[in-house]
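As promised in the previous annual report, we have extended the structural survey to additional targets. Below is the entry for Xylose isomerase-like TIM barrel domain-containing protein.
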Amino acid sequence: MPPRRSTASVIDTKRERSSSSSLSDAPPTITKTTSKAKAKSKSNGTKTAVKSKTTDADDAIAGDDVEAKTETEAEPPKKKARVAKAKIWPPPELAPESHPARHGYPIFTLPSTSKASNGALPPSTTEARPMLLGAHVSIAGGPAGALLRAGKAGANGLAMFTKSQRQWKSNPFEPEAIERFRNLMKSKEEGGLGYPPESILVHGSYLINLGNPDESKWNTSYECFKDDIYRCHQLGIKLYNWHPGSTVGACTKQESFASIAKAINRVHKEVPEVVTVIENMANAGSNIVGTAFPELAAIIGLVEDKTRVRVCLDTCHLFAAGYDLRTPEAYAETMRKFDEEVGNGYLGGIHLNDSKADLAGNKDLHENIGLGKIGLTGFRCLMRDPLMSGIPLVLETPAPEKALEVGDLAIWMKEIKLLYEIQAMDDKDWILKKVEIEDRWRKERDSINPPKEKAPKGKAASKNKKKGKKEESEDDDDE
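The corresponding structure token record, generated without further manual editing, is:
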């Protein structure tokens, strides 16, 4: 509940997925006075006191015009100020005692391999664990809420933001928020939920563009980048993932690689421990940086401390950029290229998304697992690949727009369960049951999040065309 915008210098950010955005990450409240109230105030020479309007939804529009109240001599008596009630912690609907058993048990025995291992962090336990599969969940109510939501979904891993992904600055963490998060990270034996650092992948702000050569804009991006990473350090999280950025047409790709590496090298000196995880992008052939494996390798080549740099592969981005995953042969070839051109040792995370767009379509349009152009077979290959063990595998798939929290989690709970189910099936059973499982899953998904009807022709179509741009790739925006 990430999804999906890395170059705020040239575009307005767009919502990629309602499901993974923090419900607490609303834009700053802006107070406006209506023109009518302003005129009245000016003509009467009186003061105006303006009411502000706020919203809890992360997709709300800040700065809605609000009515102004003109002070008069006959002002009604003031009401007594309300005393805010302390919020119950943990929220009853997310309380640990309501969490289901974690999916992925019994644990699937992965096949042995002679391939180089990935860049997973040292495990916090010697016990066998399922793959660290989860979703990008909300931090509404504070960062600890993300761990509670992951537990509610039966997940073994997760992704989250550490602040609003659409603001340059946010208030610092309260000490209580940090303490709650760190306590919940602990093992169940220690009273926590058992989400150690290797199971959590933070997603960075969508505003960051460290590939932009403009010094002022680069500095602004860097401060946001550094703040994100410092927040990870405060919470005890070790993996920070972000979009590398764009040249914005103002420099060469090589110059952009150097700008990005400069930021990585600098933040490694200023914030300890946290590993910077570069995400591959979708729009190949554009100004976007990191769409091809050699571009990721070029950035890593300029990083001084290579123990603190990794790559997160987004399956939809891979497919959009021309890397096929649909069959066992195509999947194996794509991963062979990654090892050859980047190195398995740099693989630190996966974003699991099917694609609404065709192979090499250069469009980042996420679809639920197995219901897009990649298909379930590609994700079964990934779930049975030992290279994916010990790193966060994160769903960023669509969930109902403005749905209740349980609606979002219901989608991901079913996808998590589905992925473990097809992982455990042998090849013979998979061939026999593949179509049946796909049909069953499509009906389940449609019951929770029905596909949107196609826009009608004419004026309504024109109106919906503008609205539909919200579903377009952040990569398209980045140009």
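The longest helix spans residues 427-448. The CA atoms of residues 212 and 247 lie 5 Å apart. These points will be discussed at the next consortium meeting with the crystallography subgroup.
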